[in-house]
Specification:
Number of strands: 24
Largest sheet: 14 strands, antiparallel, barrel
Helix content: under 10%
Radius of gyration: 22 Å
Distance between the termini: 44 Å
Oligomer: single chain
Number of domains: 2
Shape: globular
Length: 375
């Protein structure tokens, strides 16, 4: 068991300076992640629950967050094990949500995550013990260039209010200890992204979720859906027009990523999938139908070698509630044809047969994504 309380007594100045890089086993202690605005994070020698704690509270009426405090360390020491992260929480007037998280990263890819979705702290909570139990994946890749897979633990406050987190413990546990994550049913998928009428996820992390009054939260940006018009709020902005029949789904207009606005076109039919933003285009044709999915591929004109592949699963064309979530899934899948993962292609980095007559019988969509979906 690792007691994390020993490093809680950092000064505010130390806390506000996250490290520029994280090496495996660096033991860097707690730090504030990102650049939240309108929040204050203060270490306390004795919190409301009688132990050292962090007080995280909003200072502005409309803070920009979330405010995240975390530790990051080497995940290889825990691969293939079940871990538990526990803290004591005391919350006051939390308007949105607060909670713990445990995340495993392989580079930029999240391979395991529990962020207390569905069991967040809201309103007033008096000295409650909260915990996350998560399985760290097996066979994590070895460190490369001094960097390897990372395991992060921490806590966050969204919106207004105040919350204290303290008395932290991190430990390996047996499989008799139940996992805390509650998986939601998903109805469709695009590549490794899964979606339903209310949420879009990749590797367990929520990419977009539906709010009230026709608004979606795409990361930190609000997206308004009114009829066939989809409008991106905030700096840069953008507007797409949705057109849909039982045979064709299309989004066309302009959209911004990283405050850069360009023309966008997303089209799905039974025969084609087009993902276009600016001069980046992925144009794929339907290649094979499985029980629940259609596999779309792009090939070279001369040899027929497969250069790009993505599976679309579920009744996206026929279920109106899945149309807007499919758009957010397209954002995650990406528009650059070079981003397709050749490791997951049966051609194995283009060294397979010169003409894609048929994938081998072992070819399947990702085991934790579309392959598990039901039509």
């Amino acid at each position: 068991m690792i007691a994390l309380t020993a490093v809680l007594m950092f000064t505010s100045a130390q806390l506000a300076s996250p490290p520029s890089g994280v090496a495996p086993g660096a033991g860097l202690g707690w730090y504030v992640s990102g650049n939240p605005k309108g929040y204050e994070v203060t270490p306390l020698s004795t919190g409301a629950c009688g132990t050292p704690a962090f007080l995280v509270r909003s200072q502005d009426e409309h803070p920009v967050g979330p405010a995240v405090v975390m530790q990051t360390f080497d995940a290889l020491k825990y691969q293939g094990t079940r871990v538990r992260f526990t803290m004591r929480a005391d919350a006051r007037q939390v308007t949105d949500r607060a909670g713990l998280f445990v995340r495993v990263n392989d580079g930029a890819r999240v391979v395991a995550l529990d962020d207390m979705r569905g069991r967040w702290l809201r309103g007033d909570v008096s000295c409650r013990t909260v915990a996350i139990v998560l399985d760290v994946p097996k066979n994590l890749p070895a460190a490369r260039d001094g960097r390897g897979p990372l395991l992060s633990v921490g806590f966050a406050l969204y919106g207004n209010g105040a919350v204290e987190f303290g008395d932290s413990q991190f430990e390996k546990v047996g499989t008799d200890v139940a996992l805390t994550k509650r998986d939601l049913p998903f109805d469709a998928g695009l590549g490794e992204v899964v979606l339903n009428a209310d949420e879009v996820r990749l590797a367990g992390a929520t990419l977009a979720e539906r709010q009230a009054d026709g608004v979606w939260l795409d990361g930190r940006r609000a997206v308004s859906v009114q009829g066939d018009s989809i409008t991106q709020e905030g700096k840069g902005g953008g507007t797409l027009k949705l057109t849909a029949t039982r045979e064709r789904l299309a989004f066309e207009g302009t959209w911004s990523f990283m405050e850069v606005k360009k023309p966008m076109l997303v089209v799905l039919t039974n025969d084609e999938l087009t993902l276009k933003w600016g001069d980046q285009t992925r144009a794929l044709a339907a290649y094979e139908d499985t029980e629940t999915c259609t596999i779309y591929v792009a090939t070279t004109s001369l040899t027929g070698r497969v250069t790009d592949r993505v599976s679309v699963c579920g009744e996206v064309l026929r279920d109106a509630s899945l149309r807007v979530p499919f758009l957010f899934a397209a954002f995650a899948e990406g528009f650059d044809p070079r981003r397709g993962d050749p490791v997951n292609d049966w051609h194995s980095r283009g060294m397979g047969p010169s003409k894609p007559t048929k994938p081998p019988t072992t070819f399947k969509p990702p085991a934790n994504g579309p392959a598990s979906l039901k039509p």
